[in-house]
Amino acid sequence: MYLPTPRGPLSSALVPVLRGPVPGDDDAAPALPVADALAASTDLLEDDDVQLALFCLYELHYRGFEDVDDRWEWEPGLLRARRRLEDAFEAELRERIKVPDAHGLDQAGVAETLFTMAAAETGPGLARYVGKKASEGQLKELLVQRSLYQLKEADPHTWAVPRLAGGPKAALVEIQADEYGGGDPERMHAALFAQTMRGLGLDDAYGRYIEELPAITLASLNAMSLFGLHRRLRGAVAGHLAAFEMTSSLPNRFYGNGFRRHGHGPETTLYFDEHVEADAVHEQIAGRDLAGGLARDEPELVPDILFGAAVCLALDDAVAEHIMSAWQAGRSSLRAG
């Protein structure tokens, strides 16, 4: 992936900095208008400039950019800028997203609360629409919308592995091992998604469609990175993964049906079919052994476990609402790339 086209003053300042040389010990830190961008934003979750800048800073910790020196990953000036963006982003999430009361919840109570949250999720009906009505073009859009995460599927949650111990760590590793194909690179879920993209004539190169992804899609990705990259938020990443798995199995059945409805065969639908079965198992492990086990071992993390789950559900709904609103209005859900 190459650095994307800037979308405002902050990303316009960040992109040329990242293309330049990494400063030495005696050089000035890169000057980025973070405070101005935050002050000017009317909605951080829908702010293309802020979310793109935060995404670029996070991506330095994943696969990086072809046109960026890898040493930028730990440059102190960028880390300070990222922290200011993260603080504002996290504060916005905590203020806007309703979280169930965590008082008095034990291991079983946390698991049951997560299952209740997932069961209550109604959303805008994107999966059912895809299963029954979506056009071939809309199927392609769905894949593009999800490509930036699915082509590195599981990576944000994997950051939590060294931050956990005992039963929760074992549960997370069990889930992630399946996500990574159980040692078979061709069965990695990211590889299966790439196969689905190729089945619809899309480019499966990682980051190929970054220019077309709206701010709310980037915000959902950035929330995962925020939780995964901070040890203090290990409860949130556990809750996020639990909610993610609990709301995956049935929608993927609908998605697979939507692709079959347009004549796509097993190679193209394998990604969705694999998740119908795998996530039905993963939701139990994630809810009871990972999130519930973490609540047992570190009860002070219960509020963050529920927070992470609530963020997952709320942002998934927001992305789906964005897509459905566009489609119902007869337009694309993607930005003009």
TrEMBL record:
Lineage: Bacteria, Bacillati, Actinomycetota, Actinomycetes, Micrococcales
InterPro entries from the UniProt entry: Haem_Oase-like_multi-hlx
SMART domains, alphabetized: Haem_oxygenase_2
UniProt cross-references to Pfam families, sorted A to Z: Haem_oxygenas_2 (PF14518)
Protein name: Iron-containing redox enzyme family protein
Family annotation (SUPFAM superfamilies): Heme oxygenase-like (SSF48613)
Superkingdom classification of source: Bacteria
